[in-house]
Amino acid sequence: MTPFSSIEIDPGTVAELRRGLRGAQEAVYRAFERPVFGLCVRILQDDAQAADASQDTFIQVLGGAAKLKQGDALAGWIRSIAVNECLQRLRSPWHKRRQALPESDALDPTVACHGAAASDAEKAFARLDGDARMVVWLHEVEGYTHGEIASLFDKTTSFSKSQLARALAELRQRLAPGDAVAARSTPSVATCEGGAGE
Q: Can you give the pTM of this predicted structure?
């Protein structure tokens, strides 16, 4: 279960959000701020970019809530806005140049999990190319289908499938042979304390 699917917002609050009432806006922001930031930081692997993507997500949510047709679709709608914000940043020339910089073995303590195996898996996941990392996260953690991922990237489903297969193979290779099972579930480290799963 992803953090988004576990959040329940009262239908009355959603109706007030659609009318632009400040109390409802605050309630929705408070309920989704951590899952949105967690998703963004996992995909972008940068706290500052994740904070910007989160802020832009909520600007869109609060500004576009009147267009939301079904109150029960709120969590999915917010998640899709956050994913699109991340995708825009991954496609930016600045981000592509940043990825070309030498990798650091240091992992941001705000997203690192405890334990050597979790840390190794986290580092391996962080070293994936941005597109591959996003495909793995969306498919394995957020539950997106290959068709949905392909639509986000404006590609075919084979793009999503091949990105996922290559990324999982790379994760297995980066981890010790005894940790191959951990590589298959690398994104799940987000559910440990302090990560996106809270």
A: 0.69
